[in-house]
Task: inverse folding
């Protein structure tokens, strides 16, 4: 382990704030749908397609940006991504037609989110910190993402109320640029040199080794299920609440509670991933999702039950991230961790696209979300079982 150039506390604090800004700004875009489509005469589906394209391209570019971070350092990649964040959001604000908006919101932001998002930040912390601090640090960065949702989204709504949608979006662009200086402490050049000296494995060899390992595919398909759950509920929970004839504020409250309790769940998962076997922790998380969803489906759909369900799901929401990152590091080392975890994250984003699309498709065809809930419960059982054979080795000094 190369000596840290920045105190661990400052490194973690900068990473947490950067993750909060990254997630908070991108989760604010839904607030602009109504005012932008009304002012510019666009369709809601056109706006939604641009954001969906961003999600999909985020998955495609994540392993590419991860490989760049592994080769040339996380700091310049995160700084470049933060700069693209500012350009992309400003471009969205100044777009006069839907095609230009789709380019900035879908393509530019898809690349930006990949370069300056949670996967590379988490992989960088894992590479820089000693093994005994990694789970806690990744848990903090994951929790920071949810905290950003609570901090930035209300600020964006306040900005819309005070300065209009265009002024608020330009303010978000400026806020995103704060990630540039926050990336300064994330200098992993010494750690990368130490990895190369200890065992000079090329990216091609590392990828072949990972792709030929059953544990990689178990993590990939498990994270696919995570993405499917998160996207289905994140996109369709308000619609499901409306289909149950509950007030609209219940749907908004459900999303807020999920984010709030995700802070607790992510921190707990980070701590537990340092004490338990990470494989067993993932089995418990996915099995618990299935139990919670089953209980919710069997219960009366009252306001109280929706909010209780949201709180429990929040505890399990992104608690999968710290143990998944840790298992990638333990199985494949940290030299090419951002690349390999980027590929696992691609599975998450494909699952996210599937959950959002399939939920809408099923509702359009059946007028109900019941079948989608059943698929989600079955997928939770599948994810719990598929993690059972994952290797959870003890880190050797070379891999640590």
Result:
């Amino acid at each position: 382990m190369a000596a840290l150039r920045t105190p661990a506390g400052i490194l973690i604090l900068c990473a947490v704030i950067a993750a909060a800004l990254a997630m908070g700004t991108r989760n604010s875009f839904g607030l602009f749908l109504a005012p932008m489509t009304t002012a510019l005469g666009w369709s809601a589906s056109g706006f939604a397609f641009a954001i969906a394209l961003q999600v999909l391209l985020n998955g495609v570019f994540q392993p590419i940006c991860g490989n760049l971070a592994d080769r040339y350092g996380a700091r310049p990649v995160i700084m470049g991504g933060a700069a693209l964040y500012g350009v992309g959001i400003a471009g969205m604000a100044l777009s006069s037609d839907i095609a230009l908006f789709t380019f900035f919101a879908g393509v530019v932001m898809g690349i930006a989110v990949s370069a300056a998002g949670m996967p590379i930040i988490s992989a960088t912390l894992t590479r820089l910190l000693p093994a005994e601090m990694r789970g806690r640090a990744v848990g903090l960065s994951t929790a920071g993402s949810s905290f950003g949702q609570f901090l930035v989204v209300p600020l964006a709504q306040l900005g819309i109320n005070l300065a209009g949608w265009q002024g608020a979006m330009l303010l978000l662009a400026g806020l995103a640029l704060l990630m540039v200086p926050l990336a300064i402490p994330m200098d992993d050049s010494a750690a990368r040199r130490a990895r190369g000296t200890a065992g000079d494995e090329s990216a091609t060899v590392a990828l072949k080794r990972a792709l030929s390992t059953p544990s990689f595919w178990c993590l990939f398909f498990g994270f696919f299920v995570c993405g499917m759950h998160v996207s289905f509920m994140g996109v369709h929970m308000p619609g499901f609440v409306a289909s149950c004839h509950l007030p609209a504020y219940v749907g908004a409250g459900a999303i807020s509670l999920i984010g709030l309790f995700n802070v607790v769940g992510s921190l707990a998962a980070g701590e537990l991933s340092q004490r338990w076997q990470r494989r067993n922790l993932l089995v418990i998380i996915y099995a618990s999702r299935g139990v919670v969803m089953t209980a919710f489906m069997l219960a009366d759909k009252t306001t109280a039950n929706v909010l209780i369900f949201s709180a429990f799901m929040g505890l399990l929401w992104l608690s999968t991230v710290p143990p998944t990152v840790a298992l990638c590091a333990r199985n494949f080392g940290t030299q090419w961790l951002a690349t390999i975890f980027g590929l696992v994250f691609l599975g998450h984003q494909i699952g996210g696209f599937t959950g959002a699309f399939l939920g809408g498709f099923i509702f359009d065809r059946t007028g109900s979300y019941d079948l989608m809930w059943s698929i989600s419960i079955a997928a939770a059982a599948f994810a719990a079982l598929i993690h059972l054979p994952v290797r959870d080795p003890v880190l050797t000094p070379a891999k640590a």
Observations:
- The radius of gyration is 20 Å.
- The chain has 17 helices and no strands.
- Residues 45 and 200 are 48 Å apart (CA to CA).
